[in-house]
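Structure tokens please, single chain.
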Amino acid sequence: MLLNITLRGRYVLPVIAVMIFSISQAKAENELTLDQAYRLVLNQNPMVQSYQARYIGAEGNRIQQSLLPNPEASFEVENFAGDEGRSGVDEAELTLGIAQKIEIAGKRSNRTRVADLEKQQIKQEAIASIQSVLAQTNQAFANIAVAKKQLQYAENRLSVADKMHKAVKVRVNAAKAPKIQHTKVDIEVAAAKLEKRKAEKELTLAKTVLANLMGVPSINQDIKVDISSLPEIPSYDAIANTLEQTPMATMSQLAVLKQQSVLELERSNAISDPTVGLGVRRFNEDDDTAFLASVSIPLNFFDRNQGNILSARANVKSAQAEDQNLRLNLSKQAVEIWQAMSNARQEALDYQTNIIPSARKALEQAEYGYGRGAFSFLDLLDAQRTLFDVQENYLEALNVFYKNKSQIDMLSGSYTPYTTSLFNEKE
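Here you go.
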């Protein structure tokens, strides 16, 4: 009998372990992490697919611009269908030839470089746009967590309102409070219910926004984010040092290089390309054959491409000015975002550690004192509304913090590992 019990005991721990593992697996599958949301966005977001398609199109254009011009084949018949002896084709001359345009002055290499820089520019634009979508995903993810917290506060408000309703009812029935207090507390209960419905709609909307970004109809998984644990903010110097590596800055620099290459291309286009030809001619009159060769080149008397060269010079200056302006705007934007994020973090921490606990304690004291007749109904109502107001302000501070955090993450390159692999495979 003891042996039987021992054998059963040997299987208890493995069975429990399997059950715990299964429960944890099911729980993990029912939760959506931020990394999973990023992966879904990269795989299913229509705009991400559009950016990738544009990059492939730019690669096609680069290939096309690197190709040599096609040769031209020609066939000529002379001295036929004329008068008397040349009425037929007996004395006709048949010529079969081929001509090839020879590009000189580096036209093809310049043209290819322009297309290659345009491809790189489109790549950086695509990366910047995709990282912006990931930043929106980050913000949408946090918005869901904030909306869930807002719903929790709304439910607590309704619970407090119900509790206050009962306390007031007891005092009114005991003739210790006027009936108007009962009416006022009914209004508070109705307002709490309305606030709860509003919070539920906000949560639904936040989930819809994230679902649209991920390219799915709806979100069935649970999202759990500890928004109260505010991450540290990187120093502004650390962010400023990464601004030059952002896709927007790189794209702007590539725009300058592209316009400079366009200028070189237009200068090379001012030099005419010769066309060489080679053919064979047959004389039907005596069945003789002969070879012929030709060289032709346009004479640049009027059109020396001077208009396109002037336009290209102006575009270079414009691109340089826009590049400088972008860098100034990036620095300004980084300062504003960093400052707003820092202020919002400090504000949220103040609400967490001081203001909300104090408001909650004040409400508890007001509830206790009102039940004993030490505080008036207005004191109780004011304490309740104060708590709700500071909680709402706290959520607003969290919204501002996580909104700016998603932008700071983009400026600091946090999304780069998710975007570089999208294009490296196609190069």
